[in-house]
Write a structure and sequence with these properties.
CATH architecture: Sandwich
Distance between the termini: 63 Å
Number of helices: 1
Helix content: 10-25%
Number of strands: 9
Strand content: over 45%
Strand order of the largest sheet: 2-9-8-4-5
Structural class: alpha+beta
Length: 111
């Protein structure tokens, strides 16, 4: 029984650290300004299809799904929706397993 508790304790300590390392993260976007339908290249970490399911523009109230044009471990090329309204948007990730939305500190201006 002690072994079970020891194993459980180790797992509870180790799993959050492993999960935190595997989380997708955006660090920058280029260009920072564009029009509806424009393409953007987002840089970051853990951006493979196993980590990132979808990318959204969000203003905190409304979310607009972007088309993913290309996806690599450190870059994702996205296309802004053609019908998105002008404004300043944060990028948001929906994880590949659809378990979490993760709003990113990366911003885009749509003109």
């Amino acid at each position: 029984m002690r072994f079970f508790y020891l194993l459980l304790t180790v797992l509870l300590i180790a799993l959050p650290a492993v999960a935190a390392e595997a989380s997708p993260k955006f660090t920058s976007v280029a260009p920072e300004n564009g029009a509806a339908g424009s393409e953007f290249v987002v840089q970051g970490e853990n951006l493979t299809k196993d980590s990132v399911g979808w990318v959204y523009f969000t203003d905190g109230k409304n979310d607009s799904k972007c088309e993913i044009k290309d996806q690599q471990a450190k870059t994702v090329k996205i296309k802004a929706p053609a019908d998105i309204k002008p404004g300043r948007y944060s990028l948001m990730i929906l994880t590949a397993d659809k378990s979490r939305f993760i709003e990113q500190p990366v911003k885009v201006n749509i003109q």
